[in-house]
Structures are given as structure tokens and as C-alpha cells.
Amino acid sequence: MMLPLAVLGNVNVDLIMGPVAPWPVPGTEVLLDHDDLRAGGSAGNTALAWAGLGLRFVVPASVGDDLFGRWLSDQLAPHSADWVTVPEATTLSVGLTHPDGERTFFTMGGHLPSMDWQALRPQIEHMTGGLLLLCGSFLTHRLTAAYPAIFAWAEARDIAIALDPGWPPAGWSGPERARMTGWLAHVRHLLINEAEALALTGAADTTDALTALEGMLPKGATAVIKAGPMGALARRGGVNASAAAPSVQVVDTIGAGDIFNAGYLAAVARGADLTDALTDGTALASRAISTFPRQYGLPDTTGAA
Description:
Layout: E1 5-8, E2 12-18, E3 34-40, H1 41-52, E4 62-64, H2 67-75, E5 84-86, E6 92-97, E7 103-107, H3 117-120, E8 131-135, H4 141-145, H5 147-156, E9 160-164, H6 174-184, E10 189-193, H7 194-201, H8 206-216, E11 222-226, E12 232-236, E13 239-243, H9 256-269, H10 274-289
Parallel strand pairs: 1-8, 2-6, 4-5, 8-9, 9-10, 10-11
Antiparallel strand pairs: 2-3, 6-7, 11-12, 12-13
């Protein structure tokens, strides 16, 4: 039997275009080979992956009262049936991909900063047990301020918190490190990328970063570092684990880490061990970033609805 899954964070509209290089000269027009309008944001990417796997999950969210809000709700139907509509513009992010694998984002604030836990809570109130992923922490200001209440709510319902906070716009300053440390006291699965792990811990390499991250977490919790084409590394109970990423022809890497989260947490929810969970995460992300339109699938995936 599979544990319940939920993701709470930034769901917005993504317009992905590219590749473009070099940066266009102002006043000119550039024709691109690839474009994709899709539900996005860290929470949106994870939700799409779970939907692609045919899994049951909950994604509490709000959208703006505009055309993009209605479109976004349609993309994640029926999971958006109880979403809240707010009198704001729906957040839109334009991502430009580059031939070297890098990407540039232009994001408007829109509805995300004002997402409200009390307004969203009824959408997830029925959940007990399972895994709740919090993500996009530095974009959802009002929701993030309610993390202490969310932690208490989850603990009372035996819900394990997973966290992928993203990168603070101003970097890992002293106050941001202190805030993150407070969050980590409640986290069972920390899911961050290599650059975030090194910057947060000040470690020289991922091995040292894993050890430092595990020390910030409760006993028995798991620290995971997503290392892109190098796969993923993790540490739990003083023991390291890893999974290599398969070699693929990359089409679009945007959201790869969020899709890894989906595969990893789905595996944890069905009782997989740590190495298998890392393997599922890397395999799912690799498939998604190498297909267009994106495809989500794993061999022998279980727990489908």
C-alpha cells in the first residue's frame, strides 16, 4: 500500500523557449526551435510528474483571477478542483534555455507571494500519514511565514515533511541560514541541489556537505543532494548512498530537480530503500528532460491509481 503524497508550494505558469545563444541584440527578433507552455514552478513540476505516473496526490494551490489562472487549473485537473482563485495576476515565468544547458528565467511576482496557508489548508485537511513536500520557499512569502504552523499540523497527523526550498534570491546570508536551520529541525527528507548544498554548508565537496546536512536534520532523517548528470547522493543514519544518472540526449532541463523529487518521494511512499529511491528519482528526471512532449514513466512503477 502506498503512502499519501502531497506537494505545497509554487504552482505557476511556465513558458519555456529556446535554445538561444548568444544573448539577443536589443531591437532584434530571434526565431527559436522549441517552446512549451506548461504548468510549472517547483510544486507544479512535481505534480505533473506524479500525474504522469498515474499516482494519487494532493496539490493545494491558488491561482489568479485571469486567463492564465483558468488555464493552469485545467492543466492539473482534477487535482485543481478545490483551488482558490484570488484577485491577482497568476504568476508567469518565462524560461530561456541555452545550448550549454544553462537557463535564464524572467518571473513576475503575481499570486505566489500571497498564497495563504489558512486558505489552502481545507484542500489538504483530510490527509493523515504520508509525505508532504514543501518547495519554492523563497517565492511564496506568506506561505513560508506559516511554516511553523504547517510543521505543527503535519506532526499532529504523522505526516513526514520533505523540503526543497530553492535558492534564496540574496544568497545564503546569515539570516537565511538561521531560518533554514529552523526549518530543518522538522524535515525528514531534505532535497537540494549541489550548488545549494555547498553554499548552505560551506563545505568543500558534496561528501562533506552531506555529512554537514545530516547533522542539521533530526535523527534518522535523510539528506539528498541532486547532482544533475552525476546523479544523486544521500546520507541517512551515517550511511551514504548514491545513484548514477543514465546518459540521455537532453532536450530541456528545466524542472529536473523537481521531477527527481517526484520520483524519489513516490519510491519512498511505496517503501523502497534509499538507493532505489535515488535511482527512481534520477531515472524519472532523466526521462523527462530528454523527451518532448515530456514523458514520465519508470519500469515496474507500482502504486498507480
